[in-house]
């Protein structure tokens, strides 16, 4: 059972790998090679790399020929264009390496299959299914077929090389088929055949191209050489940023600080300046088919002034700016001033119209591009002020209002409440009496009743003394009851009052006894 499972798993794995391998070529980008062109400096010729052209392996995809260089460019929207495209498919410039030498040719369609027709110098005509096509990347290059004859010595500046920039390389050229042979099966669109210009033969050079019906290449004394005309400057207009995909990073930076002080004897204006510098950078990105290092004038809607940059190269300039600071200060006071700013980095995708100007004074060409702009700049520059303080001791100057800073002073007031309890005190003054109670102790029961057997007063004086004693005792009893009602819970106070009453009673009894005697 294990072997069966392994066999099934192996089969499924093989199928999956086969599917992936089958899909792999569809996602593989076409390999590209640089295109070289002639740079004429005086009597010397050098090969330089083109910024707008490339050689790419033909992938048989219809979209691959969208920006391929045609052998003939008719007037747009003309009757000739419509009729010619219906009779003959479009033909494009191609190249094939033959015995180590790259040879230029043109494409033809045979039974829905596109092949490249080439012929080396004085060699047989060949058909190749594997070849490279010349691509004008993004349509950014301006090409023209420059007429040439044997009376023109040398090569044109900007002539497109079919090789790798060597001295012996051929240049892409074309010639028109003879009258009556323009629609032969291996002729290009509108009867043009593409060949090679060799500037190193017969003093002024010759064009070699296969004529329709011939089996070998033929030498020609006139024809056209493919020349690239590069722009001399650009203009970037109608810039629209994609705000949803824009990334902004801000870094708060201290740009400078100073102290404003007033050492005069009256209120006066204190002023100074803060100077700071920063690096301002701008980079408008790259784009396929746009020449790097070319002067570009940018019309940015965010700024009222235009800016000049070098396309494809980051522009960095150091800016020095000065800010003035002033304020009114009282005598002997000072204030600290700090200058802050946000060093802002922004990365924003954008679309714009790029207009190219050419040195042949031809009409400028505009096209829409998409790229990414990266900038670094100082923004949100502002000043912050400290509270005003005394220069002598550094303490803050009292103020109720201020326009620069707000100082909040919190004062905590602690209120202590003292509660005094005043107790009413009664001064017990001795009441003068003329008689004392009878001798002998007075026993008082628990129910408050006395066990003493009273004696009737014998005389009117005794009666008066007795009445006086009753009044004194009643007064003392009332005082005792009032004291108990004021402090019912004060055991110590009641004890003191009872003791005081006992002493007074004893003193009164003693006085009365002495008077009787």
Describe this structure in words.
The chain has about 525 residues and is α+β, with helices and mostly antiparallel strands. Among the domains are: about 200 residues, no CATH class; about 160 residues, Beta Complex (Proaerolysin, Chain A, domain 3), CATH 2.170.15.10. Helix content is about 15%, strand content about 40%. The chain contains 4 helices and 22 strands. Strands 14, 15, 16, 17, 18, 19, 20, 21 and 22 form a 9-stranded mixed sheet that branches. A 7-stranded antiparallel sheet has the order 1-2-7-3-4-5-6, with no helix packed on it. Strand 10 and strand 11 form a beta hairpin. Helix 3 runs antiparallel to helix 4. The radius of gyration is 59 Å and the shape is elongated. The termini are far apart.
How many β-strand runs? 22
Query: In angstroms, what is the radius of gyration?
Result: 59 Å
- Unreliably modeled segments: 1-8, 20-29, 179-185, 402-473, 478-495
Share of helical residues: 10-25%
Distance between the termini: 146 Å
Give descriptors for this structure:
517 residues; alpha+beta; Proaerolysin, Chain A, domain 3; 9-stranded mixed beta sheet; 7-stranded antiparallel beta sheet; disordered N terminus; signal
Give me a quick take on this structure.
By secondary structure, the chain is of the alpha+beta class. Among the domains are: 32-229, no CATH class; 232-390, Proaerolysin, chain A, domain 3 (Proaerolysin, Chain A, domain 3, Beta Complex), CATH 2.170.15.10.
